[in-house]
Amino acid sequence: MPEPLLHLSDLTKRYGTTTAVAGLDLAVAPGEIVALLGPNGAGKTTTLRMLMGQLQPTQGTAKIGGLDCFSERAETMRLVGYLPDEPVFHEYLTGRELLRFVGSLHGLDAARLGEAATQWVARLNLGEAIDDYASNYSKGMKKKLALALALLHRPRLLILDEPANGLDPYATRTLLEVLAEQAAAGVAILFSTHLLDQAERLCHRAAIIAQGRLVAAGAVDELRRQAADGGSLEQAFFALTATESET
Question: What's the sign of the alpha-carbon dihedral 77, 4, 224, 200?
Fold first, then answer.
């Protein structure tokens, strides 16, 4: 396994007396797909926001390519493609204008930007909608445009928050194909999801958190063995999170 591109060590976030994330240790290597799983309120989105430099950890570190996600945010963002659960776009920009804007922020020249934009507009079936105002898109179309924006600059790490949420079955199939291709090309991928069957098919490893704490991490087969009957990832998830959730 190559050296991790993403490395979390004792990552902790507190709000007063409430601990949202507690001592999280996790690593993701190039070419690896890791699913971040947990019930609502487990701390998944808080973790992703710390990775994006939007929140400062109370304790511990989050590093991408050896750079601190908070204090060196500008440098780390050059390495990252981010897909939020609920993408929000400028009200009076079309999809095409957003691609140009984001591409310029990443320093892409006109030729490379045009090539990348054409590639992802076609691959994600954005079609003629690319010239409509993005704020008028359906939820699924917003998600596809946000994915195109995340992939535009060829990131070394993809951070995806509920990437399949809002997508129809055709777009979901394309998403899963794209993620598998990106991993095969050496991109590290961390994604949060409630869709355990998709995680089971796609990811190399999974990290399960509950009440802000890591309760299990490992290959899917390893996690399955931790279930009472050695069944599916879903059964392992319920077995591993039941006590924490009840608490």
Answer: positive
Determine what percent of the chain falls in helix, strand and coil, rounding each to the nearest 5: 40, 25, 35
**By C-alpha distance, which of 166, 163, 192 is closest to 44?**
192
| Token pair of 19 as six digits | 């601990």
State how far the alpha carbon of 160 is from the alpha carbons of 1, 17, 52, 81, in Å: 22, 29, 11, 8
Q: What is the pTM of this model?
A: 0.92
- A 10 A CB-CB count for 39 gives 18
SS3 assignment, position 153? coil
Helices 169-184 and 139-151: crossing angle, nearest 10°?
Answer: 10
Can you give the pLDDT at residue 62? 96
- Kindly state the tokens that stand for 142: 């917003």
Work out the number of other CB atoms within 10 angstroms of the CB of residue 2: 10
Give the separation between CA 169 and CA 15, rounded to whole angstroms: 38
Give the span between the Cα atoms of 159 and 155, in whole angstroms. 10
Cα gap 39→245, rounded to integer Å: 8
214 forms bridges with which residues in the sheet? 209
- The per-residue pLDDT for range 140-197, each reduced to its tens digit, is 999 999 999 999 999 999 999 999 999 999 999 999 999 999 999 999 999 999 888 8
- Specify which residues 24 forms β-bridges with: 11
Residue 151, phi then psi, degrees to nearest 5? -90, -10
Coil, helix or strand at residue 48: helix
Alpha-carbon gap, residue 48 to 81, rounded angstroms: 12
E strands, 84-162, are 157-161
